[in-house]
């Protein structure tokens, strides 16, 4: 019972579990603990929402870049291909 | 892209390798891959070049089981991880001194683990709306990420950008599993706080 009490008041642990949950499965015990904590803690509920949002944003940061027009300049590319040809000739 | 009408050997199964068109076909893609992960244009350019040269050296090892681009990307990926490793290694950097971290970022009350007053999360507009489309917010997020210690950023990026496995991250960056979780947790606490501070 004491341990349950611990999690009810422990936002440090709850936020840790929120992060863990997004990466791997929680144990049954952890799931129960987190659920109990979130029921009573609006700060951590808010944290969870924001945390999930941030992960999405970070993911998107990269995946949207795929469609962006980031390019090497042509000069550099030309030199790069020349170096490759050089190497190919050597072999 | 490159169609050679002269060589009419229709062998679709084996994937051909064609260094004469590497730059044309893959350089921009590889550059984009590198620059989004390490945020350093010059270094990213160097890595692309190194990737091509390394690939040439082991061209006989290419088995055609994956596409040319996938193969080149995997070589580049290892080089990016090397950069992470170099940035984040060094005496003491792979272990987190929890005391110092807690001193300047006391998110929680030391006694009961509750949010400290100053650090309680507040709503700042990313909770319900879809934050993904907001350019300004993205720029702030980037800056906040750059403020993280190098090792944290490496761990965080590999996990949340590239969905790498926890085992691989721990092995490559030489962090223990328990430190991994501490880093993931701390990185997010800091990032969230930074966003709240700079967005409101």
From TrEMBL, chain A:
<protein>
    <recommendedName>
        <fullName>Zinc-finger domain-containing protein</fullName>
    </recommendedName>
</protein>
Automatic annotation (TrEMBL), chain B:
<dbReference type="InterPro" id="IPR013324">
    <property type="entry name" value="RNA_pol_sigma_r3/r4-like"/>
</dbReference>
<dbReference type="InterPro" id="IPR013325">
    <property type="entry name" value="RNA_pol_sigma_r2"/>
</dbReference>
<comment type="similarity">
    <text>Belongs to the sigma-70 factor family. ECF subfamily.</text>
</comment>
<keyword id="KW-0238">DNA-binding</keyword>
<protein>
    <submittedName>
        <fullName>RNA polymerase subunit sigma-24</fullName>
    </submittedName>
</protein>
<dbReference type="GO" id="GO:0003677">
    <property type="term" value="F:DNA binding"/>
</dbReference>
<dbReference type="GO" id="GO:0006352">
    <property type="term" value="P:DNA-templated transcription initiation"/>
</dbReference>
<keyword id="KW-0731">Sigma factor</keyword>
<dbReference type="Pfam" id="PF04542">
    <property type="entry name" value="Sigma70_r2"/>
</dbReference>
<dbReference type="GO" id="GO:0016987">
    <property type="term" value="F:sigma factor activity"/>
</dbReference>
<feature type="domain" description="RNA polymerase sigma-70 region 2">
    <location>
        <begin position="23"/>
        <end position="88"/>
    </location>
</feature>
<dbReference type="InterPro" id="IPR014284">
    <property type="entry name" value="RNA_pol_sigma-70_dom"/>
</dbReference>
<keyword id="KW-0805">Transcription regulation</keyword>
<keyword id="KW-0804">Transcription</keyword>
<dbReference type="InterPro" id="IPR039425">
    <property type="entry name" value="RNA_pol_sigma-70-like"/>
</dbReference>
<dbReference type="InterPro" id="IPR036388">
    <property type="entry name" value="WH-like_DNA-bd_sf"/>
</dbReference>
<dbReference type="InterPro" id="IPR007627">
    <property type="entry name" value="RNA_pol_sigma70_r2"/>
</dbReference>
